[in-house]
Structures are given as structure tokens and as C-alpha cells.
Amino acid sequence: MSGLRLTLMLGALAIAGCRQDMEDQPRYDPLDASNQFADGMSARTPVTGTVTRDADLSPVPDKIPYPITIELLQRGQQRFDIFCSPCHGRTGDGHGMIVQRGFPAPPSYHQDALRRASDRHFYDVITNGYGAMYSYAARVPPKDRWAIVAYIRALQYSRDAPVGELSETLRTRLEAEASP
Fold this sequence. Notes:
Layout: H1 2-17, H2 70-83, H3 85-88, H4 97-100, H5 112-116, H6 119-128, H7 142-160, H8 168-178
Helix pairs in contact: 2-7, 6-7
């Protein structure tokens, strides 16, 4: 038994003695010269289409900056169903599948506070996350974020549309469903 202990102790010491210091690896400091590239610079120009992680949010408008078209709403619905409905539910009521399995429920989009919230509020939450929701900035491009916001507004409107603005067919169907 003592031979086994000695072997284990020597093995542990050998493993503890192994270190690979990343700071000792070859690297370039910013703007160092380099003979590896034809221009002699170690810093490289970002690839076309690269999005900065610390993008300036000040130019983000308060309202949806695109015309609200059926195409925008369909794109918003598609993106909402993929990214938002697992928690928020397909109707935005906060009872998605993940919530049904025990995750804390997000607020319903149909509550007064969120009906009054600006379009920018929803865009910012998608971008930065809020509460238990993490940021979708790396997953959802800005135009799709606005499409999702447009779709959220459509969901909100669908629950509170004035009856006078409905088509005759929808009004008749609604009245038939409402009467016993």
C-alpha cells in the first residue's frame, strides 16, 4: 500500500510541476511590426462585415426604422418563434415551453407597462438581455431585432384591436364566439 501511495504522491507532484504560461508564448503587442505579412504590420484589418462587440447604441432610433410590411411581420414572427417563444410563448403571454418546465416566467407582452414601452425598449432588451434573459446581440442581427419588435407590437395589437377596425367577417365571427 505504501508503494502505491508513494507512486501517487510522485505522480501528483509531477503533474503540479507542469505549467504552461500563456504569457510566455510568442505574441505581438498591438501595432508591433511583423515580417509575417507583406505590409510589415502585425495588426490586421477586420474582415468585411465584422460587427464590433461594443457597438455605439446612440444611433438606435426610438421607433421601428422600417416600413411595417407583411414581409417584415412574417420575418419577425419567424425569428420570434425561434428565439423568443421558448420563454415568452407563441402569443407573448410568458408561458413558453421552458416556463412550463420550471423556468421563471417572463412578463406578458400584454400587460399595460409593456404595451406602453417604446419600440426601443424591446430592441434594447433583445440586444442586451434583461433579468434572466441573456443578450441576443450575437445571435439576432439588428434588422431581425426590429422585425421581432414589429411582431411583438402585432401580438399586442391582436389582443386589443378596436372592434370597429375589424373586417365585417372577423366582427361577425367574434360576435358569434362571444354569444352563448
